[in-house]
Amino acid sequence: MEKKKMWYALPDSLLVQVFSHLNAVSLVQVGTVCQSWHRVSCDELLWKKLFHRDWKIDSSIPIASGKTSWKSEYKRLKHHTPVLESEVLTDHTHQVLHVSFSHNGDMFASCSKDGYVKVWNTTFPASVRYSSDMKMYSWNYTQFSQFNESDTLLLVSGVHFGAHTASGEIAVFNLSDCFTLQCRVLNKPYDIFGTWYTDDYLLAGRLHFLGHFISCSALWLNKAWQESDSEKKQIVKRLFKFYNKSASSIRTIMIANCLQSEESSAEESNGGNKPVLECGQREPSTLHQLSEQLVKGNPVSHNALSTSQWPVPNSRRRQRSTESSSMDVKVDFNAECQEACTVYSPIRYSLEYRRVESAREGVDSDDNDDNNSTSPDFEDPPLPWDEDWFELSEEDGSEVSNKINIFQENFRDNDVESEKEERETVDSIEEDLSGEKLLDPREKYLIFTTGSLTYTPHQIGFKRIKPFKFAEQVTETATLSQRIQERREKRNAPSVSPNWQDEHAIADHFDKVDHIIDLHGHIIGMGLSPDHRYLYVNSRPWPQNYVIEQPLFPPPIAQEIDIHVIDLVTLKEVGTMLRSHKAYTPNDECFFIFLDVSQQYVASGAEDKHGYLWDRHYGNCLAKLPHTDVVNSVAFNPADNEMLVTASDDYTLKIWRSKNRIQHLNIQKRVTATQWALCAPSTV
Fold first, then answer.
1. Is residue 494 reached through a cis peptide bond, with omega within 30 degrees of 0 on the bond before it?
2. What is the pLDDT of residue 483?
3. Residue % of the chain over a pLDDT of 70
4. Which residue, of 196, 467, 523, 625, has the greatest Cβ tally within 10 A?
5. What's the CA gap between 603 and 81, in Å, rounded?
């Protein structure tokens, strides 16, 4: 009896010292003995030590923004992380390439090589709400989907039939009208994918060949509602035309909202000039031939482009890069970033990222004036551009006319607007008698992958888009006979063909890229954080001191995938994880591995038959989610961080939920154990 009283009489300092030798389970158990022990067992210093030790997190990393309890964080990683398999969906009959969620979290869409796009309910158990076979529209397969902001429309991107085609198409389905097909838009190359610009307008791409390894990528703004009551209703608009060299092109476009309330500290634009990379000594001898067997995943479009499509030059000149690029990514990480990162090593964030995250927690952005930096200096010519530039090819007119009529644009020059007009509300602008409409008052970033030395996408390009007006109504339209006559006059008129190989001479005819970041590797996936502040990128790195002798012979790529984190305010890399997950295919067979970012987690597919899950703030790997084949895509439920879906070449979609959700839904323990134990504490 005296001994029991002695234990109850121990001071808190001694109890803390004793409890510090316990694991998490034992610490919770001793907290049930009495109120005094419960109070001591909840000591934050004890849980902070357990948290960093058990989850293998650097002790210098502070608690996540908005969180106040280390015990709650420990419980979150244990009970509220989507690591348990609750459902396996087998409705697809071929490889599943992509999965995406609606913004309200009620639906998710899947795309597959069986040619179907399917929309699923997220309620347990998940079931198909809508389904459409796109092979009836000459599609080979569906590859990508995206819901608009109001979740009323679904953008679906696909690839046309053909053994050597880079052509694709975008279809828009109306979710509020029984999944009615609303419009179809050509998209070339297909791995531009397409994206929503606003709730009713989407972006698609076109590729025009100009010369040997030279092309132009044109990005078009398309209205999703193309069933117009009047032929004078304008429905498309070319926004940008970018110059491509070295057999490269614009790929994987996305739109991000610019964050103007934060402090920016980016370097000035380099005027659209691509960085020149430092070369090494290694060169692959031959290109790998495409396998006639079953192709894994969704390959890049260059595999479908025959080299005969490029006009043959009069002479071939070997090009070698010898200058060091000022745009090379250099990140000031902490001391631990020098250690070799294993599969379960964390994402390493720079000190700048940690400072920004800390500042965002209760600190007004006006107080963050440590650096006297300025906003990125972007060139913003007035939109829209003049359409009468050097004619690219016959394809420019013929392909577009196959789908929709393009009418003459009737925009006014907005450069002379007064400050009073700039402060007008959106409603008043839309009521302008000219019929022009401000599509979106927010400034946006156009983000895309591209290249400068080879066809593989190794650079990320940024183009800032300021709000502009779209002419909904064309006041005067030329008759058919007038348009035929104008075309005849154009053909008969003497024309001076520009030297497309001289990039500087024809630079004024193309739009400049505001900023480029070179990752020195094959970029295979990108994902935005929910607040559009950070861009996460999957990349397979090239070897150091690589050399590119010829655009069609890129350097060999690593079998590991790196994750890069880019701050879209400063346009600098603020985080990285090296050799994080696996990919095995060579350059000419490399395909897309999509990743997704939620408020608390980061997830990615991989070629080693697993999906990977990391905590976004602490950077530690939380789980490997098993499939029986390549995992192509992952997606978080934006309304529920405790639900994750993975899509695989094994023809299945798997839904992963947290222990908390499994218990809440009263799901029987048929759930498959993941390799979570390899990442999580053994005591959990």
1. no
2. 80
3. 66
4. 625
5. 12
Q: Mean of the per-residue pLDDT values for the chain?
A: 76
Residue 591 in this model has a pLDDT that exceeds 60: yes
Q: What is the pLDDT of residues 592-632, one digit of tens each?
A: 899 999 999 999 999 889 999 999 999 888 999 999 999 99
Average pLDDT (442-466) is 94
Q: CB under 8 Å to 79, separation ≥6 — which residues?
A: 658, 659, 660
Which tokens sit at 529? 């954080």
Structure tokens at 95: 């490889």
Two structure tokens written together for 504: 């500087």
Count the Cβ atoms, other than its own, within 10 Å of residue 298.
26
The pLDDT value given to residue 333: 31
How many helices (H) and strands (E) the chain has is answered by 12, 31
Angle at which helix 44-54 crosses helix 70-79, to 10 degrees, equals 40
Task: Give the 3-state secondary structure of 168-198.
Answer: EEEEEEECCCCCEEEEEEEECCHHHCCEECC
Both tokens of 54, joined, read: 């058990």
Cα pseudo-dihedral 30, 35, 37, 42, rounded to 10: 90
Contact by Cβ (8 Å): 596, 647:
no
The model carries a pTM of 0.76
Q: Assess contact for 183 and 171: CB atoms under 8 A.
A: yes
| Distance between CA atoms of residues 211 and 613, nearest Å | 44
Q: Is the bond preceding 384 in cis, omega lying within 30 degrees of 0?
A: yes
Tokens of 335: 């001391």
Q: Report the C-alpha dihedral over residues 427, 429, 431, 434, rounded to 10 degrees.
A: -160
CA distance linking residue 169 with residue 422, whole number of Å: 37
Q: Can you give the pLDDT at residue 579?
A: 64
- Tell me how far CA of residue 191 lies from CA of 25, 300, 524, 586, 630, in angstroms: 49, 6, 11, 18, 19
- Mean pLDDT along residues 537-559: 88
Distance CA 220, CA 338 (A): 44
Lowest mean pLDDT among 28-32, 181-185, 345-349, 421-425: 421-425
Residue 662, judged by CB atoms within 10 A of its CB (0-12, 13-18, 19+), counts as buried
- CA-closest candidate to residue 51, choices 63, 33, 37: 63
Which is more confident, 443 or 356? 443
Residue 654's SS3 state is: strand
- pLDDT, one tens digit per residue, over 271-289 is 444 443 333 333 333 333 3
Tokens 């607040």 sit at which residue? 531
